[in-house]
């Protein structure tokens, strides 16, 4: 077993799904959560508003048509994964989306609605036409809808659920539900995958897919697996993970064994494993078995059955399981009338385990199973919750749908725990949540009760009850679970099924807020109690939610369910009686407001942007240098061409694997074919040839490589680069490849990480100490697959060889791949290798002409430059309005307990002499630290449109692959941070002398236009403490520039600017060189700074205070809307209707105009037009982005009189479809005039309304 660093991951794989003890192991090994000491920190800062998703245009058009037909009474939600609507419902108890004939069969009603309005959810015109009665042809690319079930609920509403199919093949996770009552169609929701275009003829056989699935599931102690079921389906990548992906044909292979029940998804064309989903959702007719349950012999091992006299709980485990199973049955039967988990009275079978699967608890599709000490009420009910889930919304056990699966089980488990009158050993106070104290980065219970604590009574494994907590629904962060989507604890990667246990904290927190009330994330929720909450959640799970429901769709399901239940009678729930009784409670509109607020508090509709799933290889390859010269290239289209192959194994089992040529290549990211031949390092799975067996005698640990022919670097070659395309898909952390070079016959050495220009090796392979038997253990290598996926993708890597070799050298390039003892994942493909040189071009030298004064007074100045002798031009001038650094810190101000004037941090951060250069640096040691951070006190503004970079010098010695120095950025004042860089090592670092020294550079351009705080954060484990140098950070700077080309095609070597407004400007010049038939760009010149302070020509010459007057085409007489009000200096319109602006007097008649007569001839360089604000009775000072969509101008022209009586529209002055309060027109060339006017051709709300007109300039030259 691979242990130590993978301990958590190993447990996640062994203790599958709802194995509640999993969190005893994981979270008692060290929580990284932080909080307020001595409190239950359930509050927080205000939740950020979720970003809007732009719907598909056709779907948006369909919604608009439906809104017009219904008067706009519609609530809708757009899927981030597909871009179409995943929830559309009528807003109101009596409202419908479409009236129809209630006597028509429900399925026909549903199909009729979708045939007319199916574009809402992504159905194409062809797909909608088939719903009218045609049969979907197996040859068409249209999807079909197959009936799943029709049901009628207690409110007498009917629900029709469809499964999406494509050419007769089911589309995994894609279901639509249409809801209706006697008045018509009330809602449609679910996930429909639009635009599928693929072949449904697999290249991989079902038998082969079964072998692949067994290999994927078998790495570990359980190798006795069998294929239980294989089904061909369409799998939409990203549907569960939360990103827009593509559709592939795949096999769903159910693999089962004594310890395992998994659904493995295998690409039917390539054999790649796409996803692995656990089916262990780790039940009045009761049977209790021990030590096992055999479905083929259901009468064996029975120890309790319905009707037996059984001691009340707490009692012996078999009696407890019997009673708590009854509590689970009763709560669903009494409250909702549901007879057992299938609704048809199926026997509820429970097993008390006594075998090697312990410690564990799980639902396996036929029975709930419990190890000793897991016979606790909340755990028993939790597992039965999985059974009820399977037979209702059947939530897929992966990512957010899987987290909801877990949350529903927690909800029903704690509902029984808190209401059945049975107190366990974990605590007696079920009225108060636990209070925690934060000690050394962990939360320790210090007071309060045990309300909402899951598994608090578990005491096995020598754990006292106070530490045996598995989850806390009221305060998820106590055990490293998130209470909101943007929480730092939100789980992003593929482990734990995409965070099914961890991320359940989000919906768990929402339920506790609804039941008990409270304030969280700036949102205050009033309590609605258990009865109302349970009825809302149960209706959501049985009516609206589908198998792929995610958090945003769950929010919509809760809101729709609440609306449906307004005024409906609600039964009490009981754990002791199966008979329902009226509760007397009702749900009101106010109740639904609390549901909405609770969802907002946990950010249910906010995407987990921090996950930022990335491809293992960035597909955005930088542009190659101009004028490059190819020295060597290889595409393997004609064979190996002099490349030599070799290999070596670790044991006698090594099969002698070598690189091979492969022409059946994975597709490009856009789905297009990657044609030709590539070199292939196979990384075989268990069961494949040379794939190992994970058993003695099957150890295929080894490495194999291919070396290029000898390449001579020609004389005069400069700026050498090596590039190659490759596809990476290997076993994460254990198998991978990298590049080495040999110079002049010397040993092959690994290319250093800092010599990669683009797409460097992504991570270090696990070390030998971690159980990795790969000979390349510990090396930096390309390994794993794309984040959020199990597959890879093509990308290009660029290496800088200029520092590794010189002209005249003879070099060889080696592609080296290594693997451990078994179970790979496709391998490494390499194609289109190229070694080339880039010419080194000299930059121009830029200076300022003699007409410039510092500052410049008239906005006129000249730039001069010297073009290098061999440059031919033409030249380009670029301008930036952001110049120089926006933040600097040389770290010379000492940190006192982690604090100085610029930074606030933990006490572990101190000021220390940097051993590398003796200057003072900020320093944090390496070892046994969790989340030790140093954060900017004051936010720094990054100018809009700016290219921004964070740089800092560093001396870094961290345990390679296990301890990390992270750079993180917050754009919301420090509430949430995103990681922008992470550093470890250097490679193999074990000693204090193993360090990286140099300058780090981090691109911050994504934060342009925002104010940011930077945070340096150290995370390290408890191994090799004190053996590394730690992390020194010095000379921190943030620079920002927004250079844009302002003049191009310049053939001379000077340029004069005129009419520049006040401000600071930076300029640089680039020239061109003629290289053969191409023009190659030089680097840019030095930067010069220009400061313009043209005070004399910055007057508002259109103001009445400057002598201007105003006239208009007409004026409304209903209020004081005189034209003079539009030049009175009041931009906001504070006195609108009382002299504060102009309103024309001709309703819906255009054009209208407002004319400003200037006092004499004026030079005008800028004109500002301000229209009426939405909130005009309480106006604000206008800003450039303030919107006006109620009363403002729509279409207008800004004009000046040219001196001959003609009106001329100024450049940029023809405005259409305006939505802004403030429109600014900057004139590149100022105009000289005596009059300006605004000519209005369309406006909102019948009239033209102008609050103010400004003309910035000065008197014309005589």
Describe, in plain words, how this protein is organized in 3D.
This protein is an alpha+beta fold and 1262 residues long. The protein folds into seven domains: 57-190, no CATH class; 206-278, Nuclear Transport Factor 2, Chain: A, CATH 3.10.450; 317-611, Neutral Protease Domain 2 (Neutral Protease, domain 2, Orthogonal Bundle); 636-663 and 677-837, Sandwich (Jelly Rolls), CATH 2.60.120; 845-867 and 1053-1066 and 1076-1092, no CATH class; 885-1041, Galactose-binding domain-like (Jelly Rolls), CATH 2.60.120.260; 1099-1259, Sandwich (Jelly Rolls). 14% of the residues lie in helices and 33% in strands. It has 14 helices and 66 strands. Strands 1, 2, 3, 4, 5, 6, 7, 8, 9, 10 and 11 form an eleven-stranded mixed sheet that branches. Strands 59, 60, 61, 62, 63, 64, 65 and 66 form an eight-stranded antiparallel sheet that branches. Strands 23, 25, 26, 29, 32, 35 and 37 form a seven-stranded antiparallel sheet that branches. A hairpin with a 3-residue loop joins strand 6 and strand 7. Helix 7 (317-336) packs across helix 8, helix 12 crosses helix 13 and helix 13 (551-565) runs antiparallel to helix 14. The longest helix has 21 residues, at 399-419. The chain is globular and about 105 Å long.
